[in-house]
Amino acid sequence: MLSFWNGITISGGEATTQLPFIELFKAIKDTPELKHLTCFIDSNGHLASAGWSKVIEYTDGVMIDLKSWNDECALRLTGKDNQRVFQSIHFWHKRGKYELRLLYILSKQII
User: Fold this and answer.
1) What is the rounded CA–CA span in Å between residue 16 and residue 22?
2) Membrane-crossing residues (predicted)?
3) Measured in whole angstroms, how far is the alpha carbon of residue 52 from the centre of its chain?
4) CA distance 7 to 40
C-alpha cells in the first residue's frame, strides 16, 4: 500500500445515483490493511434521508455542493429547489460528517 494514500472519494456525475459503491466502502472498512482509509462521497445533496441512511455506516463524510442559498437561483441552475439539499446538509451536520461547498457564478448568482 502506498504510504501517501489516506482516503477515497466517490464523485463524478452524481455519486449517489450509483449506491452500489457502498460495497467498495464496506470492503475498505472490512480489510485490515485498508481500514485506515477514509471514505467520502462528493454529492449534490439530492439523495433522500433514507438513501443516506444506507451509506452512513461506511461513510466518513460527505462533501455537499450547494449551488445557491436561493431556491429561485437553484431552480434556474439545476432544475430543482434546495429542499432536499438542505435536508441532506442537516442530516450530515447532525452527525458531524460534512463539508459544505458553495458554487459561485458571478453572472448567475442571486443572494
Assistant:
1) 10
2) none
3) 9
4) 8
